[in-house]
Amino acid sequence: MPSTSLPASAVSLPLADWYRGAARDLPWRRPRFHEDFGAWGTLVSEFMLQQTPVNRVIPHLEAWLDRWPTPAAMAAASTSDVLQQWANLGYPRRALWLHRAAVEITERHGGVVPKDVDALLKLSGIGDYTARAVAVFAYGDRHPVVDTNTRRVMARAILGQAQPGPPSRRDLELMDSLLPADVAESAVFNAAAMELGATVCTARSPRCEICPLVGVCAWVAAGRPDTGDTRRRQATFEGSDRQARGAALRILRAAAPDAVLIDSVLAEWPDPLQRDRAIDSLIADGLAEADGEMLSLPR
DNA sequence: CATGCGTGGGC
DNA sequence: TGCCCAAGCAT
């Protein structure tokens, strides 16, 4: 399946060497972080990192864990407080799911973040990436961790493609085939592949001059061809329902814990139908609550 | 399998 | 400026 005749170690060894010298000093990579927050800290960080850049996550993560240092502490919080604390991290449904996961961990796992991938996958808001990220980065187990960075690195270095295709189960199989047999080495490999994709093998301007894999990269060997791009493009944000939802929720966060008159929310929005649709969908999603003429974050 | 879902920074 | 992108998930 991999279009390479090189052994997997030809990729993993230089990557591990590079990572030891080049890894960024991020909060969740400091030993103290795990002493204080354990797997819960990892889980919270992974939720926040789902589609939100590292630099915007860091201050929010520290504030979050100061306020709710355990799953049980967060499980006891109100939805309103959770959504306010989530602030402007984006995709606020993640805050709802994280809250639900905290309740599930408290009720079903005695307040301890599960270590088993299948148990993690059953928690709200946790999918293939987050489940394995927690198992690997919090507990040190051996699993393929595949995110957008990893998929891009594999697409280029192994498959010789400029960009990865749509996410697929095959990504997990390919990453698994590259994983070192040693447990500790496999964890480093997962982290290093992500780090390389985030800082060197980037989507727009890959810095092949400094890449530790330049000697084995299938894409470089082929002359960095433009192999096409089948990635899904984001829908235009300007004028979208998402924009309206975001604007409405921003108003509710600012007013919380108070409610506001529904009629006052987005009263000047250019498209009244879209404005109504946004508010109705926020309520349906559990991100807002209507009480008579008033609208607020859910209690 | 395709789509909807926030927010802000970089080029 | 406008577009692209960012440690995905649920449906």
TrEMBL record:
A Pfam family: HHH
Q: Which PROSITE patterns match?
A: ENDONUCLEASE_III_1 (PS00764), ENDONUCLEASE_III_2 (PS01155)
Q: Does the keyword Metal-binding apply?
A: yes
Give the Enzyme Commission number.
Answer: 3.2.2.31
* Alphabetic keyword roster: 4Fe-4S, DNA damage, DNA repair, Glycosidase, Hydrolase, Iron, Iron-sulfur, Metal-binding
What is the required cofactor set for this protein?
[4Fe-4S] cluster
Record GO terms (molecular function): purine-specific mismatch base pair DNA N-glycosylase activity
InterPro entries from the xrefs? DNA_glycosylase (IPR011257), Endonuclease-III-like_CS2 (IPR004036), Endonuclease3_FeS-loop_motif (IPR003651), Endouclease-III_FeS-bd_BS (IPR004035), HhH-GPD_domain (IPR003265), HhH_base_excis_C (IPR023170), HhH_motif (IPR000445), MIG/MutY (IPR044298)
Task: Provide the HhH-GPD domain boundaries.
Answer: 48-199
Which reaction is the catalytic activity of this chain?
Answer: Hydrolyzes free adenine bases from 7,8-dihydro-8-oxoguanine:adenine mismatched double-stranded DNA, leaving an apurinic site
User: Belongs to which family?
Assistant: Belongs to the Nth/MutY family.
- The name of this protein is Adenine DNA glycosylase
Organism, by scientific name, is Microbacterium foliorum
